[in-house]
Specification:
Elements lengths: L1 H39 L6 H13 L9 H8 L9 H8 L1 H26 L13 H5 L15 H4 L3 H40 L1
Helix pairs in contact: 1-2, 1-8, 4-8, 5-8
Length: 201
C-alpha cells in the first residue's frame, strides 16, 4: 500500500538521523569523561589537549535533524485508517509521545550547555583556541581567527570542585540524551519491522 511505503521511507530517514546524532553525542560524552579523568589526575595538564576535549564537548553535540511534516501529514489526513494491522496502528499512535519525550531531553541538555556550562568557561579556558568549523572560513571566505596569546594555568582554572561539578552535570545531561536517543531509535526500528511486515503481508 502507498502509505506503507511512504512510512517506510520516512522511518528509515529518521533512524539515520538518530544514529548520526547519537554518534556525535558519544564523542562529546567520551571527551567529557576523559576531561574528568584529567581533572582527577595529578599529571601536568596539556593545554592543547584540554582545548580539543572542550571543542568536542561543546561542538560535537547534535540535535535530531527530523522534519516531522511528512509523518504529521499522514496522521492529520487520516491516512492511517488505510493500515489494517492493529499492532502497527498502536505503534504509530505512540509517535507523538516518543518524539516529544526525546525532544524534552534535548531541550534540557541545550539549556544547561548554553546557559550555564559555556558561560562558566569564560574565565577558565581559552575558548578562542577551540576549533572553528572549516565551513565558516573556507566556504564563506572569512578571515581566519588567530589563537589566543593569553596565559592560563589550567591546573588552577579547571582543577576545581566547581568546574568538576559543572562538567559532571553536563556529562550527565549527555547520558540522558544518549539514552533518550537509544529508546527512540529502538522505537523506530520496531516500527520499521512492523511496516515491513505490513507491506509484505
Amino acid at each position: 500500500m502507498a502509505v506503507g511505503f511512504v512510512l517506510f521511507v520516512i522511518i528509515v530517514n529518521y533512524i539515520k538521523n538518530v544514529n548520526d546524532a547519537s554518534s556525535n553525542f558519544m564523542v562529546a560524552y567520551e571527551s567529557s569523561a576523559n576531561l574528568l579523568k584529567i581533572i582527577r589526575a595529578d599529571d601536568i595538564i596539556n593545554g592543547s589537549e584540554i582545548e580539543q576535549l572542550l571543542d568536542d564537548i561543546i561542538n560535537k553535540t547534535k540535535s535530531l535533524d527530523i522534519i516531522t511534516g511528512s509523518i504529521d501529514e499522514i496522521f492529520n489526513t487520516g491516512s492511517l485508517h488505510l493500515i489494517k494491522n492493529p499492532l502497527l496502528k498502536k505503534q504509530l499512535s505512540n509517535w507523538s509521545f516518543k518524539y516529544t519525550d526525546t525532544e524534552d531531553d534535548i531541550v534540557i541538555y541545550k539549556d544547561y550547555l548554553f546557559d550555564l556550562f559555556i558561560p562558566s568557561l569564560t574565565k577558565k579556558v581559552k575558548l578562542r583556541n577551540t576549533s572553528i568549523p572549516s565551513f565558516f572560513e573556507n566556504n564563506l571566505g572569512l578571515q581566519i581567527i588567530s589563537k589566543s596569546n593569553f596565559k592560563l594555568d589550567y591546573d588552577k582554572t579547571i582543577r576545581t570542585v566547581e568546574f568538576e561539578n559543572q562538567l559532571y552535570n553536563n556529562a550527565l545531561n549527555y547520558m540522558y540524551t544518549i539514552n533518550s536517543y537509544k529508546v527512540f531509535q529502538n522505537y523506530l526500528k520496531d516500527t520499521l519491522k512492523l511496516i515491513e511486515s505490513n507491506i509484505q503481508g
